[in-house]
Amino acid sequence: MPREAEPSANEKAFLLKALQDEQIRLDGREFDQYRPLELTFGDEYGVANVSLGKTKILAKASAEVTVPFADRPLDGIFTIATELSPMAAPHFEVNRPTETEVLLSRLLEKTVRRSGALDTESLCLVAGQKCWSVRVDVHVLSHDGNLTDAACFAVVAALRHFRKPDTSMENGVLTVYTPAEREPVPLGWLHSPFCVTWSFFGEEGETALLDADWMEEQVRVASVTISLNRHGEICQIAKLGGVPVEAVALLQCTSVALTKVKEFSTYLDDKLAEDAKRRDKGGFMAELRAENDRIVG
Amino acid sequence: MPLDTSAYSLALLRVDGRRWNELRRIHAQIRTQAAADGSSYLEMGHTKVMCVVNGPSEPGPRRGATSGGGGGGGQSKNAEVAVNIVIAGFSSVDRKRRGRGDKHILELQSTISQALAASLHTHLFPHSTINISLHVLSQDGSLLAALINAATLACVDAGIPMTDYVAACTAGSTSTYAANDEGADPLLDMNHQEEQELPGLTVATLGDSDRVAVLVCESRVQVSRLEGMLAVGVDGCKQVREILDRVVREKGIKMIQEGTVERGVGLNDMELD
Amino acid sequence: MASTQHVLLSPAELAYLHASLSLTPPIRPDGRSPTQFRPLVAETGILPGTNGSARICFADGTEAIVGVKAEVERTRTRHDFPSLDESAEDDDDLDDNQNEVIKGDNDWVEMTVEIPGYRDDDAGTVFLSAMLSEALLADGEFTKRLWINQRFHWKLYLDILLISPPLSYPLPLLSLTTHLALLAARLPRLKSEGDEDPLFDDDWAAAPYLYPRPSEKGSKATAPAPAAARPPVTLLVMAVGNNIIFDPSKEELAVADVALAVSVGESSSSTTSTTSSKPTAMDIDTEETKGHNLRLLSVRTIDPPSRLTPPGIPNASNSAYGANAGAKDAEKKKQQQEQARTAESEAVEGVWKAPRGGAKTLVMATMVQKVLEKGGVADEVLDALDGVDLN
């Protein structure tokens, strides 16, 4: 099993000394400052490309019609698949989930799926027989720390950008329309949760940083990932062990996280609006729709 | 879920008759098994877990799905804390079998491993492994908390030097996730029914400080509820720590009285009566 | 797996063990007699959430917990060809009544064994679970108890957990614990009749045991209570030389010439004791109640670690002893190897060598005989387990 290369003792000491004595991060950011977050959408619906500094993540949403699970006949299926390939960092292996990958996929699962961000009931087509299965594939293209926040942002962006083919039910016949016949429809979306990860440094975790890069992640003594939406609802908190941190500090982290989440939320809304404007070719789509409407008869 | 917890507002009693700040009965034993270096049995209400600790020892051939933390592999200068959880098929009401690759179990293993690695003095045992194996016999909420407590007790029994107890419990809130009602009460130590319906979190603290080693929240809840829940949870952890400490002391006194161990110098402050 | 784990004993220690176990009578390291079991602590009914549960703790600290959980399951209607072994049974049933056929299916029992540190698809774990379920399902009587009606049956899940690390081969421990858990297992009383959807009594106190108890002590005088059937017990027996030793510890197992897992069941004397059981079955009542009516269910050989010890590298080919001295020494080296080989096959006083070849049939037969004989070990074990309070 290839092991991740650890930073040298000098590097570690330098980083910690800079942090604790000089209050300076290696890349000169403020403690609660994110690296520049960039989001671009693909030509297709449901493809989101997120970069956070050197961390790059591609998320792609897709949908197909399947049979719902027997125990949940009224719900559609929603899965998030994560893949950390050797492309992202040399110590990842194919087909062998590392702890990082397991924890990442659990976090995304809890943040997006279990918090009910996607209305799975709206994915049901015929109770117990047909439903949409929505799947998001998360590919880590480049790993430079803070995969969680970037991946979560990418997943939410991809899902909100995604359009699934329109369907209709008439006399028990289910019709799925191609994009040419009917404009695809967005998913039933309830709220947009985002992850914010704090990393702690020092003997008692007294220094807290946002958006740690890979080097900082290797040196940190504990971390907490807080998932919130802009309405101030916590969807998930995960401080999975590590050096104990004062409870009050955690509360402060949460309130700072809330402001960050609101920023993310606005940024995503702006980007979506921008993309919608770019796609709206005005007359052309409108014309298509009118033509389709006339066919009925 | 049409379960009636709304009755809480009438009598301020929960489904099992507790008040908001009451723990369930915690029963614990240490040194339950002769073969292991350390062992414990812990009940929190109807949640029952057993823990067996072996080590610190030379790392054997890696087998099974163990999850390491606190320094990767046996080659590092810190001991590796390897946790293995078996959730018995008969532990819940409906038999549900989980494979060893189950992500939820892997997450639990990793959490416990990381939490203990921060409290245990792993730097004293380079190139070695501390094997913690946990068995869940019965589940009724607060599973992670019970696992952490049992693991802590077993590590104490195994005589592995540690900073302090890592004590854990759960806290919840009577508000539903959507409502932002200010009148909602925090609740201590959730059982399975409450966990299904109400938002809640698991807290583990180090000793009787307010320092949080583990904080896991898996349900939607208003940010404003967090402070109350966390405060109650941290307070509950202190109560749990007292109980764990009593268990250890009672066992220690008993062992001295039975003559299994000699009365050491460090034990002078212990009252033997 | 557990039987093959390495015991850190030197050849001299092994030789000493082997020699003392070969004496008549053998001297065991812990001073037990050859047929004596290690002391154990047992309790049942520890988990109210299960249909039956048991925990056994051996004196060496190995501990196991078994939980039995039952679920109602719809019986799959089987189409046309029944499997071979059932066709005989079918023939008998055809002439009496079609709709009163009580049949069982081995799929109705699911057994899982969890050994800490071992994957559940590890060969050793699978082998253990196969041995345990084989003994349970061997006579086809057990699954009949799970029959509810034509359309439904109980599906029984047996979860066997070894709590401690496997210090000695855990088979006897797991088997005894399973035995107790099954004895303590109860299924809700059926209230519905015939083939309707099953409806059960809520009253747990009224729930009958899976293995019905012999009637109350008071009535013993009137009715010669038929010894109730019981779940099987699998015992580990090993032989060193001509000595047969029961319940071997890990160290003893390391020098075993042969080790057997013998599964023994008890048949309810009134019904099935026609041919398969010992001819003494039709004896006088007094003797009948005393001893158990034992039947041999299965015998499996267990590979003792000695059989799996890799033969060491002779010094001649060990580079540490200058095996790669050069090509011109090839002749000399060959000679050395020859010598090494003869040295290896010769017995040396005080140095133990793994036995070669199979076990003697006579020894095997005696081992099985010893288990089954009246007042023998299986009898004793079952008596001892009778003493466990079932609640």
Structural notes for this entry:
Chain B: This is Exoribonuclease phosphorolytic domain-containing protein. Chain B: Residues 53-76 are annotated as: Disordered. Chain B: Residues 22-161 form the Exoribonuclease phosphorolytic domain. Chain B: InterPro entries: ExoRNase_PH_dom1, ExoRNase_PH_dom2_sf, PNPase/RNase_PH_dom_sf, Ribosomal_Su5_D2-typ_SF, RNase_PH. Chain B: Residues 66-75 have a biased composition (Gly residues). The complex is a heterotrimer of chains A (297), B (273) and C (391). Chain A is α+β, with helices and mostly antiparallel strands and 297 residues long. Chain A contains 6 helices and 15 strands. Chain A has one domain: GHMP Kinase, N-terminal domain (Ribosomal Protein S5, domain 2, 2-Layer Sandwich). Chain A has helices at 9-21, 99-113, 147-161, 214-219, 247-279, 283-295, and strands spanning 37-41, 47-52, 55-66, 77-83, 124-126, 130-142, 163-164, 167-170, 173-176, 185-186, 194-201, 207-210, 222-228, 233-239, 245-246. In chain A, strands 1, 2, 3, 4, 5 and 6 form a 6-stranded mixed beta sheet that branches. A 4-stranded antiparallel beta sheet of chain A has the order 12-11-13-14, with helices on both faces. Chain A has a two-stranded antiparallel sheet with strand order 7-10. The radius of gyration of chain A is 22 Å and the shape is elongated. By secondary structure, chain B is of the alpha+beta class. Chain B has a single domain (19-264), classed as Ribosomal Protein S5, domain 2 (2-Layer Sandwich). Chain B contains 5 helices and 11 strands. Chain B has helices at residues 8-11, 103-119, 143-157, 192-197, 223-258, and strands at 26-30, 38-44, 47-57, 67-69, 80-87, 129-138, 166-173, 186-188, 200-206, 211-217, 221-222. In chain B, the strands form 2 sheets. Chain B has a 6-stranded mixed beta sheet. Chain B has a 4-stranded antiparallel beta sheet with strand order 8-7-9-10, sandwiched between helices. Chain B is globular, with a radius of gyration of 19 Å. Chain B starts with 7 loop residues before the first helix and ends in a 15-residue tail after the last helix. Chain C has 11 helices and 9 strands. In chain C, the strands form 2 sheets. Chain C has a 5-stranded mixed beta sheet. In chain C, strands 7-6-8-9 form a 4-stranded antiparallel beta sheet. Chain C is an alpha+beta fold and 391 residues long. Chain C is elongated and about 85 Å long. Chain C has a single domain (2-312, 352-386), classed as Ribosomal Protein S5, domain 2 (2-Layer Sandwich), CATH 3.30.230.70. In chain C, 28% of the residues lie in helices and 19% in strands. The chains are: A alpha+beta (297), B alpha+beta (273), C alpha+beta (391). The A-B interface holds A 3-4, 99, 102-103, 105-106, 109-110, 114-116, 204, 221-222, 224, 228, 232-248, 250-251, 254-255, 258 and B 67-69, 72-73, 103-104, 106-107, 110-119, 177, 201, 205-206, 209-224, 226-227, 230-231, 234.
